[in-house]
Amino acid sequence: MNEDRISKLPEVLILQILSLLPTKSAVVTSVLSKEWKFLWKMIPRLEFDSCDHKGELGTFSNNVCKSLLSHKAPVLESLHISFTFDSCDASDIGMWIGIAYAQHVRKLVLDVESKGPGRVFPLPRSLYNCEILETLRLTSCLLFLKDSSQVCLKSLKTLHLLSMIYDGSFLHLLSGCPNLENLLFNTSPGYARVAFFPISVPSLLRLSFRIQSCNGCSYVINTPSLKYMEIEAKHILEFRLIESVTNLVEANLYIEYISPMASENLLRSLTSAKRLSLELAPLEIKFPTGIIFNQLVHLELYTTREAWWNLLFFMLSDSPNLRVLKLINLENYWRDGFKSSGKWNHPENFPKCLLFHLETFTWEGYSKWLVQEEKKVARYILINAYRLKRATFSLTDMSSEESGELIQNLKKVRKASKSCKLMFK
Prior knowledge:
The protein has three domains: 17-52 and 60-182, Leucine-rich repeat, LRR (right-handed beta-alpha superhelix), CATH 3.80.10; 195-291; 300-425, no CATH class. It is 23% helix and 26% strand.
């Protein structure tokens, strides 16, 4: 007879194992033995997917309700429900939320399988009234709020809104989350009914948004406590900060087009950052004057835009304490346009970071396709970085003969730092 070793494990460990399973599978374990009959009811995290109930018309919502009502753990740490439009309706959502809130749920995830921007799921008002909910993630749902008085999410720390229909309700929702720390939202073409996004959350520490609309959007942001910001957008017309973000530690910006005024305001907002990752179009940027990135020690710059070296030398000139510089080339085959995008010129003022602080220089995607101006950048860094300890070039899309030629050309450069190690990958 095979020995039942699993049942001899500590109950806490068994519950951890069961919580890794889909809830439907965890419930099935109740038939294994008397000891297992009620164990699944103590699982702190429940997960349901209507795809697991295909062919069981009308049973998905009932199974979710029964499982929630049978739950006996003192706190429901997480409830994750994935469903299609055909598997339930708004009243079902209301029942699930009511039971989950009574179970003191801490994290709620509602993922709707969307068929496009024309189909989003309406949410019941009861969703917006829970004083203990800490994390809320919604996908392909419709917010419908007349004003912020309908929202009371005092404990909410994390809010993720994915593929939502955005209108005035977005502002009302944020106004009802006084302690929000982490906000992520995105849209695809057809989802945004507004072009103006006011984000006023004084407690916010982390802001990420991805806007794929080709129409220009405007952002007015009041987040004085912000530490991390990530922006991925096709078209930004306006970007304005109500208060400076003096606590900003890291920012990642990937923007296809940004108006000159918005770019100036955006760059001004980054002066306290310690780490930056930038993919911007220098030919469209208005570089602000009189600003210094005193805290910046790590800079990543994508070299996929024409005249990208203009942005690089703006950053080098105004980042006196920079220690790490990383250039990232993701495209090789369409750089002919770079040849007519302007000549590279030495910065008027010698960058202090090259003289005193830059220690690590990395170039990913260094290849034969780079235009002459880009190769001048590599030589300039090597010739003028007096404290450089390591320079690494990742070579791509070349034969061994072609890469060998590039390596020899770089080795011939007379480096300012005698201790610099030149590395190739």
